[in-house]
UniProtKB/TrEMBL annotation:
GO terms for molecular function: cannabinoid receptor activity. InterPro entries: GPCR_Rhodpsn, GPCR_Rhodpsn_7TM. Residues 33-287 form the G-protein coupled receptors family 1 profile domain. One of its GO terms (cellular component) is plasma membrane. It is a multi-pass membrane protein. This is G-protein coupled receptors family 1 profile domain-containing protein. Keywords: Cell membrane, G-protein coupled receptor, Glycoprotein, Membrane, Receptor, Transducer, Transmembrane, Transmembrane helix. PROSITE patterns: G_PROTEIN_RECEP_F1_1, G_PROTEIN_RECEP_F1_2.
Length: 318
């Protein structure tokens, strides 16, 4: 989100460097992200079909997250190509930018709601079936889609009347105005991160507190790893890029004027955006721990061989 040239400060070297970095990062991210998220969607669909009542809530959330990640993955080739050329189709550039930010903030909100859902289930286990019904979870996911699509409206005016139109660059001054930036920063990141931090810490605290009073500690330990993986992926993926956005806001509003600092911030913005895309691959850790948790729960509730023999014997005798 840097502009290529300023009156007294050139960003051409920075942009050339980042073109190479993006190719190195985006190609494996696209290939891995495409494969991993398709496998994740397939895996959670299987849980939905075979064990609908037990794992519906989490599976719906995870499929929703994987779809957002898949959307980001599919936007990467266009983002990379359009970053190298001067497009003569601004509307197509706007569509790619729109898909990119929809997928980013769709992932933010979905991960946030996964954390909130898990916390409520842990804190209020007796009421969990009421507020975690598949219909309600599906409604929440649909609401997330509506919110991120509505929130993408400012994307259509990202470039305004700037010259040398280029995708993901040359954003207009209006894009970096306080009335656009702060709602994005607060509602798109700070609020979800606060909710997720609170829910994750409380959930882990509750589960650890039950350690000496539960017979399925191994399963609850898997749940703790799932919560920790979600939180770690969220922070690593989205904290640097939103910090970079804030620094760029200071640059574009005249609070930072020194050329070297502006160039370094430009590198940080593009680098953090580049590596935030790896989130679509990092989410596989969340999928892994959730599926592991599902399987441990299935094994814990599966009747033993002795129980099956006894049940078969009783049936035969009857």
């Amino acid at each position: 989100m840097s502009h290529n040239e300023s009156q007294h400060c050139s960003f051409s070297d920075v942009d050339e460097l980042m073109k190479t970095v993006q190719l190195v990062v985006h190609i494996p991210t696209f290939l891995l992200g495409l494969l991993l998220n398709l496998l994740a969607i397939r895996g959670f669909r299987t849980f939905l079909k075979k064990r609908w009542p037990d794992y519906a809530a989490t599976s719906i959330y995870m499929i929703n997250l994987a779809v957002f990640d898949l959307l980001l993955v599919l936007s990467l080739p266009f983002k990379t190509i359009l970053n190298h050329v001067q497009t003569s189709y601004p509307s197509f550039c706007t569509v790619v930018e729109c898909l990119y930010f929809i997928s980013m903030y769709g992932s933010v909100f979905t991960i946030c709601f996964i954390s909130l859902d898990r916390f409520l289930a842990i804190q209020y286990p007796l009421q969990a079936s009421h507020f975690r019904s598949p219909r309600k979870i599906f409604g929440i996911c649909c609401t997330i889609w509506v919110l991120v699509w509505a929130g993408s409206i400012p994307v259509y005016s990202f470039h305004g009347q700037v010259e040398n139109y280029k995708c993901f660059h040359n954003m207009s001054d209006g894009t970096w105005s306080a009335k656009v930036f702060f709602p994005l920063e607060v509602f798109g990141f700070l609020l979800p991160m606060s909710i997720m931090g609170f829910c994750s810490s409380r959930s882990i605290h509750i589960l650890i507190g039950r350690r000496d009073h539960t017979q399925d500690w191994v399963q609850q330990k898997a749940c703790i790893w799932t919560i920790a993986a979600n939180l770690a992926v969220f922070v690593v993926s989205f904290l640097p890029v939103h910090l970079a956005f804030f620094l760029q806001f200071l640059v574009r509003n005249g609070f930072i004027v020194e050329c070297g600092a502006k160039q370094n911030i430009s590198v940080f913005v593009q680098l953090s955006m580049c590596f935030s895309n790896v989130n679509c691959c990092l989410d596989v850790f969340c999928y892994y721990f959730v599926i592991k948790e599902f399987r441990m729960d299935i094994m814990a509730h599966r009747p033993s061989r002795a129980q099956l023999v006894l049940q078969d014997t009783m049936t035969t005798r009857g």
